[in-house]
């Protein structure tokens, strides 16, 4: 029997808005996020 | 003079060797045995698998690095452990078989005072009919596999350019797989690549995995604070799949990989199949099959190794139901109970149980992820075990720090497309890796540390990690400044 995805998936998951998608690759915002994520990683590393 | 023998030169063995050698100096010996002459930064294999990198960019020869540092290197595979020596040799030793072209098959015994088993996984393609590069599917587990997969992707794209529609099936090829994160990365890199090559409209892309839900990743998923809610990773992951037009099948154990179709069983007992042209399915992992003998020559393999072939260490292996699992079940020192001078780290140690709740189909097939042991915790346990052994060798009375996965966090950056300005990656941080419902009753994890986000910044970090870890593994100046 061929698997039918539509039977299993009864709802539509949330989708990002155009704004959310745009800031994901906005270099200025992402440079800031780069600093934040690195800070969060280092904070976690130091916790051990 | 003491000798530390390390079996395996992957992330675990190589990290332990670098730290132990640095701390011990030249009065003591560090000896590494590994069948492969190259070191591989495995996380970048997914980029080899889509043609963004060449195998030479993710590997380098180990011997020159070890020669520079004064570490002895044997290109060989360990076959048997003799932790009590034997009637002729009082010292513990390991039998190895050379894999170096000039001396292939030569057997040698290497005595040790301390032993680290860091032999990683055996890629168990045989556990699923038709699985693997020798049969009907591709893999990105080694740089060579990934290069073959990239060539096959190019051929598939050529067919699509001629107007053919193709179905891509990517995920896990067995009900007990781990490493879902790697398959996830490959999935989204393929999707990104197909868009870049202008053939996305010709592709149906389907994810298949043994996870109970998307976003489980073998660690029972995770909760993060986002938009005023504490939300499960399932929601974010499903959102990404929907956004990128990827279908998914979860709770599935693949059991037969044919040329054109893949058969699988789901948790509800249904047996289905899906037609697929291009298949990249990860195998299950087992231990590499080391055997062990006591002084009299009696086979003691079963007392050192779990049936999966991974080595028992200081975890609690008593069989108990999910609701009785405790953080304290997880090993701290990675030391074998029977022989305190033997340690197992990285993928080579036997986890006490899974992290995700175990689930079985009505016919009894286990369908759930086994625990992931990603690069960061692997590096940390390697460093801590190296420190503990060095302290013993140097007679220092320092308390061992331990590296339990239930008290350690992990950062995982999962690429979802390579491009300096248009690429993205999911940055995930979990603390602790093994949920601790005693300390964090709501979600099992510390929400001040646990985090997830997708964006270009993650891609930059993933790229930096690629160069940073290759630099560190080559033990170039100030390598110790780069954390595990
Ligand atoms: C495709 C892929 C992508 C991944 N991506 C990520 C990621 O993005 N981030 C992350 O954190 N983790 C990632 N991982 C997981 C990560 O690669 C593992 O955590 C890590 O490689 C485990 O290190 P290890 O040293 O235990 O095993 P390995 O790296 O597999 O090393 C095992 C070593 O033992 C040697 N060996 C084998 N048999 C013998 C023998 N008989 N005697 C002696 N030596 C032997 C092998 O040659 C090898 O050198 C990924 C894994 C895969 C497969």
Q: Which helices and strands, and how do they pair?
A:
The complex is a heterodimer of chains A (48) and B (484).
Chain A: H1 5-8, H2 18-24, H3 27-47
Chain B: E1 3-7, H1 11-24, E2 29-34, E3 38-40, H2 45-48, H3 55-58, E4 59-61, H4 62-69, E5 72-82, E6 93-98, E7 107-111, E8 114-117, E9 122-124, H5 143-161, E10 166-172, H6 180-196, E11 203-208, E12 223-226, E13 229-232, H7 233-243, E14 246-249, E15 252-257, E16 261-266, E17 271-275, E18 278-282, E19 284-286, E20 291-292, H8 301-304, E21 342-344, H9 375-393, E22 410-417, E23 424-430, E24 451-455, H10 456-473
Residues 7-13, 33-36, 42-43, 45-46, 77-78, 118-121, 140-141, 179, 182, 288, 346-348, 373-376, 378, 412 of chain B line the site of flavin-adenine dinucleotide.
Explain what you see.
The complex is a heterodimer of chains A (48) and B (484). Chain A has 48 residues and is an all-alpha fold. Chain A has a domain of 32 residues. Chain A is 67% helix and 0% strand. Chain A is built from 3 helices and no strands. Chain A starts with a helix and ends with a helix. Chain B is α/β, with parallel strands linked by helices and 484 residues long. Chain B has a domain of 231 residues: FAD/NAD(P)-binding domain. Helices cover 24% and strands 25% of the residues of chain B. Chain B has 10 helices and 24 strands. In chain B, strands 1, 2, 5, 6, 7, 8, 20 and 21 form an 8-stranded mixed sheet that branches. In chain B, strands 14-11-10-18 form a 4-stranded parallel sheet. In chain B, strands 15-16-17 form a 3-stranded antiparallel sheet, with no helix packed on it. In chain B, α1 packs parallel to α9. Chain B is globular, with a radius of gyration of 22 Å. In chain B, 55% of the residues are buried. The chains are: A mainly alpha (48), B alpha/beta (484). At the A-B interface, α2 and α3 of A face α7, β14, β17, β23 and β24 of B. The site of flavin-adenine dinucleotide has 35 residues of chain B, from α1, β2, α2, β5 and α9. Flavin-adenine dinucleotide (FAD) binds next to α1, β2, α2, β5 and α9 of chain B.
């Amino acid at each position: 029997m061929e698997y039918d995805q539509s039977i299993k998936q009864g709802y539509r998951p949330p989708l990002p808005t155009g704004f959310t998608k745009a800031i994901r690759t906005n270099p200025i915002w992402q440079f800031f996020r780069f600093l934040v994520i690195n800070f969060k990683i280092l904070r976690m590393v130091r916790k051990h | 003079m003491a000798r530390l023998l390390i079996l395996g030169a992957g992330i675990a063995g190589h990290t332990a060797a670098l730290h132990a050698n640095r701390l011990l100096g030249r009065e003591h010996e560090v000896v590494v045995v590994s069948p492969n002459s190259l070191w591989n930064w495995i996380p970048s294999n997914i980029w080899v698998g889509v043609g963004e990198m060449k195998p030479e960019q993710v590997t380098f020869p180990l011997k020159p690095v070890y020669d520079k540092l004064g570490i002895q290197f044997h290109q060989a595979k360990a076959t048997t452990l003799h932790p009590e020596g034997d009637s002729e040799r009082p010292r513990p030793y390991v039998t190895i078989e050379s894999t170096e072209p000039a001396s292939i098959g030569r057997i040698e015994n290497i005595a040790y005072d301390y032993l680290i088993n860091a032999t990683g996984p055996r890629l168990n393609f045989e556990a699923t009919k038709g699985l693997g590069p020798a049969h009907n599917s591709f893999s990105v587990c080694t740089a060579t596999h990934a290069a073959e997969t990239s060539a096959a992707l190019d051929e598939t794209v050529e067919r699509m350019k001629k107007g053919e529609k193709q179905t891509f099936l990517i995920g896990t090829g067995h009900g007990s797989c781990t490493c879902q994160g790697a398959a996830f990365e490959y999935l989204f890199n393929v999707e990104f690549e197909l868009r870049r090559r202008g053939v996305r409209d010709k592709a149906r892309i389907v994810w298949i995995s043994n996870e109970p839900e998307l976003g489980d990743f073998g660690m029972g998923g995770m909760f993060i604070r986002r938009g005023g809610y504490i939300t499960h990773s399932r929601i974010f992951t499903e959102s990404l799949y929907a956004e990128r037009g990827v279908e998914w099948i979860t709770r599935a154990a693949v059991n037969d990989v044919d040329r054109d179709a893949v058969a699988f069983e789901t948790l509800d007992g249904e047996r289905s199949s899906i037609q697929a042209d291009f298949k990249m399915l990860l195998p299950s992992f087992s231990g590499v099959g080391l055997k062990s003998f006591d002084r009299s020559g009696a086979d003691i393999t079963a007392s050192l190794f779990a049936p999966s072939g991974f080595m028992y260490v200081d975890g609690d292996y008593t069989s108990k139901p999910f609701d009785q699992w405790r953080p304290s079940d997880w090993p701290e020192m990675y030391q074998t109970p029977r022989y305190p001078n033997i340690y197992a780290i990285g993928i080579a140690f036997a986890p006490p149980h899974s992290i995700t709740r175990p689930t079985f189909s009505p016919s009894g097939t286990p369908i759930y992820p086994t625990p992931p042991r990603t690069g960061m915790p692997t590096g940390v346990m390697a460093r801590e075990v190296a420190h503990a052994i060095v302290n013993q060798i140097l007679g220092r009375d320092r308390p061992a720090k331990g590296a339990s996965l239930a008290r350690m966090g992990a950062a995982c950056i999962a690429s979802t497309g390579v491009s300096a300005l248009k690429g993205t990656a999911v940055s995930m941080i979990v603390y602790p890796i093994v949920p601790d419902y005693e300390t964090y009753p709501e979600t099992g994890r510390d929400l001040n540390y646990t985090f997830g986000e997708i964006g270009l910044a993650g891609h930059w970090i993933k790229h930096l990690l690629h160069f940073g870890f290759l630099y560190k593994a080559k033990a170039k100046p100030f390598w110790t400044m780069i954390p595990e």
